[in-house]
Amino acid sequence: MLTIKDRNIYYIVALGVLLRLIIFTLFYNHIAEYPDSSDYYILAEHIQKFSLEGYNGWRSPGYSLFLLLGGGKLRWIIVFQNILGIIALALWYKTLINLKVPRKISFYTTLLMTTFLHVIFYESAILTESITLFFLSWVVYLLSKYSMYKLTFVTGLYLSAVLAILVAIKPFYIYLPFLIFGMWLLKGFQGRKNIVKLLLVFILPLFVYFGWSYANKLHTGYFVSTTFLGLNMAQNCVYFAEKGPKEYNWIIEPYVEYREKSIEENRDVAMSIWYAYHQGAFKDTNLSFPDLSNEFGKYAKATIFNNPGDYLKQVVFTSWLNFWEPGIFWKYDEIQFGKKFFLILWYVQKSVLYFYRIIFIGLIPYYIYKFIVDKKVKKGTLLFFVVFSASVLQAMVTYGSNSRYSFPFEFIMLISVTYFFARHFSWFTVLKDKIVNYR
């Protein structure tokens, strides 16, 4: 998959390994578990027993299967996540090279990304983000390497397989094959043979998505990739929850009550309906979680349909804007010493991330224009729309934990901004003449 003739890759990997050894050996010898972690353990136990009997359909199987690789030893899971994180560094570098960004610029950009604390700390957590980042990095690497206009059967199936794994980890990514095919179809209709080859990209991701949805149908009664779907939709109604149909007052009243409590107590307002659920506000309904979430979904659809202006305001000015907020998941109190150093370093890195994100947002009109006027979809444009589409779709579907949604896309933002500057500014590309060729 990767050439190792380029010595820059050795330097990048060496720095990645060194930073992880220093942090996890000297400062943070801790496996971070969160409320979500237990959901993956439960599904892993079901998979190990080859039985989904009694499973509530909360999670898709990708990360739980990954947990089984560790044989029940969480320390091994963290080691595997670190290894994947280090491989991802090489994929980022190769992606920049594939985009014809000058080698030295590609090298220093990747070195910058290698130092980001939140990437390293996610690798110490029992959460999906680190392996999601790896497989998305793999997908982006393939998109930068292969032309969608010259796709072969083998490369199409290869891309399809990696996309399928990504969908198994997080069903949200089912949008990617549709995005790839849709952009190509709008800008590159070149005959039946090419369409057939590109349709290969759909096969395995759709099989995984619908296969798991069918498994949920058999065990929960609902054909959904996750039974969280209805509850996630209801989260988008948090600021206009009281405007729902009266028939859903049994949802509205506790929802509004816990929203106001969340505001008073300075808690995450997006999680209001979760607080209500966990504190037993809906226990008198005697509904199972899949049934309750389904009712939440019905309530959300009716409320959004009756209040499109409030929904649009929520999507654009809250959910979408929050997507661009960098975040870090760490057990800060578990850092053995140097807490202030790590905090200051994260604030500096957060400022860098803001810088790149602001530029990326500023490039939205440019890339939309490029897509309209170009006769073909350029690789840089495709990568831009991978992120932009995710920001819009995530905002439309749910509200909450937005930094976790955007985290796996950050490397694409940095690559896209670097690619743009390398192609359009001579002062940026002048380094090309001074490159030391390591091949």
TrEMBL record:
It comes from the Bacteria. Keywords: Membrane, Transmembrane, Transmembrane helix. This is Dolichyl-phosphate-mannose-protein mannosyltransferase. The keyword Transmembrane applies. The keyword Repeat does not apply. The chain crosses the membrane at residues 9-31, 74-93, 105-138, 158-186, 198-215, 351-369, 381-399, 411-431.
